[in-house]
Amino acid sequence: MRVERVKLHENGSVARVETAGLHYRELNSILRSLVADGADRIELHGVAGQRYIGTDLDRPVQIEIFGVPGNDLGSFLDGPRVTVHGNAQDGCGNTMNRGTIIVHGMAGDITGLSARGGNIFVRDDVGYRAGVHMKEFGDRRPNLVIGGTAQDFLGEYMAGGVLVALGLTLGKSAHHLARFIGTGMHAGVIFLRGVVEEHQLGKEVGVTQPDEDEEKLLEELVTEYCGYFEVEPAKVLDQPFVKLFPLYLRPYGPLYAPTHRGIEGPVSRWKVK
Amino acid sequence: MKDILNPDNRYKDDKVTDACSLFGMMDVSGRLFSGADTVRAIANMHDRGNGLGGGFAVYGLYPDFADYYALHIMYMGRSAKDKTEVFLKDEFDVVRSEEIPIRTRPGVTNPPGLWRYFVTPRKDPCLVVSDDDLVVDKVMQANTTIPDTFIFSSGKNMGVFKGIGFPEDVADFYRLEDYEGYLWTSHGRFPTNTPGWWGGAHPFNILDWTVVHNGEISSYGINRRYLEMHGYHCTMQTDTEVAAYAVDLLVRRHGLPVSTMATVLASPLWEEVDRMPDEKREMVTALRQAYGGLLLNGPFTLIIAHNGEMIGLTDRIRLRPLSAAVKGDVLFISSEESAITLVCPDIERSWKPRGGEPVVGRLGEPVALPKEWDVQNREAVGR
Amino acid sequence: MTVIKNNPKASHAQSTALPSYHCHMPSYLKPRFRVERSDRRCIRCQGCVEQCSFGAQYYDESADRVEAVDTNCVGCHRCVVFCPTSAIEIRHNPVEYRDNAYWRPEVIEDITRQAETGGVLITGMGNDKPWTSYWDKLCLNASQVTNPSIDPLREPMELRTYLGSKPDQVQIDPATGRLGTRLAPQIMIETPVLFSAMSYGAVSINVHESLARAASMLGTLFNTGEGGLHPKLYRYGGNTIAQVASGRFGVHPEYLDVARVLEIKIGQGAKPGIGGHLPGEKISAEVATTRMIPTGTDALSPAPQHDIYSIEDLSQLIYALKEATNYTKPVSVKIAAVHNSGAIASGIARAGADIIALDGIRGSTGAAPKIIRDNLGIPIEMAIASVDQRLRSEGIRNRVSLVAAGGFRNSGDVTKAIALGVDAVYIGTAALIAMGCTECQACYTGRCAWGITTTDDKLTKRQNPEIAAQRIANLVEAWSHEIKEMLGAMGINAIESLRGNRLHLRGVGLTREEADILGVSLAGE
Lengths: 273, 383, 525
What we know:
The complex is a heterotrimer of chains A (about 270), B (about 375) and C (about 525). By secondary structure, chain A is α/β, with parallel strands linked by helices. Chain A has helices at about 25-35, 210-230, 235, and strands at about 10, 15-20, 40-50, 60-70, 80-85, 100-105, 120, 145, 160-165, 185-195, 205-210, 240-245, 250, 255-260. Chain A has a domain at about 105-250: Pectate Lyase C-like (3 Solenoid), CATH 2.160.20.60. In chain A, strands 1-2-3-4-5-6-7-8-9-10-12-11 form a twelve-stranded mixed β-sheet, covered by helices on one side. By secondary structure, chain C is α/β, with parallel strands linked by helices. Chain C has helices at about 45-50, 80, 105-115, 205-220, 255-260, 285-290, 310-325, 340-350, 370-375, 380-395, 410-420, 430-435, 455-460, 465-490, 510-520, and strands at about 15, 35, 55-60, 65-70, 90, 120-125, 140, 160-165, 185-190, 195, 220-225, 240-245, 260-265, 275-280, 300, 330-335, 355-360, 370, 400-405, 425, 505, 520. Strand 14 (about 255-260) of chain A pairs parallel with strand 6 (about 120-125) of chain C, so a sheet runs across the interface.
């Protein structure tokens, strides 16, 4: 019966879906069929907690969400561009592959978990463990740009990708409050605008300034961010960024001792002839 | 002694494991409102539960009987009711007794007989004991000795309504649309077995304290033994029961403020403690040394409520979600933010409380926003 | 978008590992093995030098003798097998400390090793401690007189098993007389033996291919483990269980689409509750491509899945996978067998899983801390018994298929497991032994002389997928036939008549409590 409540207006290739009361399974199945029918812009109105929006769509369709979508927004996302006109919940961009997620508000915990590609732009703040285990591979590298700040464990286990926190919500002190930033990080890079103290960083993280190429990358990411959220890029770029990088590619190598006599740990100098 | 956990833990697991959705809503001005929004919000998180438990706690519920303890009782049989009423007559002055109005409906299975009594305990002139302690004692006695009886709500001017089913169905069953309160909490349950017993649903209650809980507390074994040392009987074998007794011990019996209670249950990490100013470090260290056995370790979100106060709290590394929001005098606490915006699209502030930092709504006081907003005047970008 | 050509970190001083805090000191450890060579038989062909990937053999040119470095020998017997004149014997190096039943030589060695390295002792393969094997205390039944046994060589004998969630009841449309119930995805296997999760990276690509091929020859499934699936093996997708683990390595839409079954890995019997660190050395370019990570870094699998901190979160990931594949594939959830497995399994079934995989304390691994491998978890026999019983008590056994893993050595173990209540079993170690593994437990070094747990190109070539697949297929064919023989002996000709049929089991040497947990009577009862 819920499906009957759906008002579907086909206007060229733009579709509008009234999602109030729809379960995610129905909503995603509507999305699948709309995309199969060639819709390239889909507006979802009255969204309230439906999960997994945008999953299993392999085309760069535009999805506009009005309301607060549920957990795992854009999980395994592979191409679509999802814009949330509101806050996003936990797991936004979970294991995302390609595509873009733009959140006009806050995003919850584990934003960008294990993302391998694509871009996530969050206007304000994110919750715990944002960017946890983000990776990169070949030319696929995820970018997670957070306009505000994050809660603890930002970039935990990071194995690739670019994570930027602009600190725009921090006010005068500009002091990020997250603890354990980059704990276990072993690849990728974090750029922070604002103040962060040594004790807030994971022990695997080094601090430096961005180099020229990175400045250029930051300029591009900031400009893109500012374009979405109507912020003046110059105001963001007027302050220097701190760059956090992993000190070790293999942070836990020496933690282990081999049980076999004669083997000097997992680092092997031996080569087969 | 009757083993009242058996109905809910029939396989004798170490404890009953479950997880859930939580929602709480409080008007700090004391304005009474219906449960419609709470029911709608918890129903929106349907997928977080599995239909094997739902419940509500309502405060400001019985203004006409505000000075009496309201006992909500489940009877699994006629003789249970007879025996319990004899017990009640012996131990209490009962000013009113009535059947709790219900409406039978599919999705809510096996309901017991449900009655409520407004009572004051009879004092024993030979004993100096507070009414509260007396009621706790008598409730425990009834629950552990009278077969097929379970008192699941025993506070003043408040009440718990709970059972087996999805929370929205349970609300309908109890005709919650007929009630008003200034504070509502609710729970949708996802237990890992089939509880056939209504008492196992949340909220868990003792006096006017209620707890709804999401997560699994890995420290349960020692928390329980610590509380047993202080005279509590953990008969239900759930994390929620342990949390409720811990709060009762710390706040009611030891007189600690709510923020200190949060420091005990979700202690700061030593690394953080080491950086604190001397005085604070000394206090936090002492709390941890004294109450280490009450540290709730592992993922949890709790909504704890009693007359005049609602507290949301997560574990110290926030392994379970919690969203908070404010609109005027109303404080919302929820597992998911979408449940809040569904019932209040124009919230003024929403935030995710940090692990171990309680969100507190107190009657007659403005809702305290997170500390960082006070000191830094945080503003959303572009607003 | 600017592409940073260099690795963003490369411009800064960076080491590949944390600075070592171990100081170099002479070792007090004695060699575990002694390489004995018959000089009379040795023809100086140096085949053993070539074969030993641990550097335990060398040729002394000046003396024209092949010599051994005993300390380097892991006891894998590769040289023994490949010596054309059977000149080599590997012997235990006797460590004749004063007799002590408690401070055994292994205990002394471990302490010494840790004193010299300050490290967590790491090892490979399964628990080698003498935990009780309940398989060895269970007897199977046979028909005598009152009902006939069946001869599987000439009579039909059905091992076909369907994995997936079964409905509680089937409805027939009264109007059309047709089936009215739509079943959840069901995966047919021809034998109740599947290949356990072993990731590409932990094992070589040729091992992955051998398992994939064997699975396709046998009509069963192999499991990718958590390292993704190499694109060249996509053609075996129909015989593939694609694992989604905490590292999410190689997990992308195509990977999910190509597989037959998806498996969420929560835990592993050899290391319940902890993650994994595939060392950078094992991450070759090909492994990196498959895992979709850069070369040279460690592949760190977090201990938990960071989107699963609770049972309702598991449900969320199960349905994330179902949504991502439009409900076309069963989703399995693999857990290590631990305390309260019954309650956990019940929760998993209610969370929407189609298959529950249980891995017991004897489950193997490519690398795990020894202390974890040997002490965490519970025996698989107990876990099977309690999980199957719990699911039945709650009336939800039909909702899930149950697969067990963790030390299945032969068809007898498999048959007993099915009688205890599983639908199928995973085998890992047995399949590797079929390929040549000798249980030397040096998998974590990446130098496996048998070319199994390595990503080194040359060592990898020691396994020919065609031959290895045939060896594995032979093993499982033989087991399948033996299972049929045992079924026939019990007078059963369909495997579902044995599944959960504990009346065909009797215990020997069990306490009454153990028998009760296993749900079996004692022999003679």
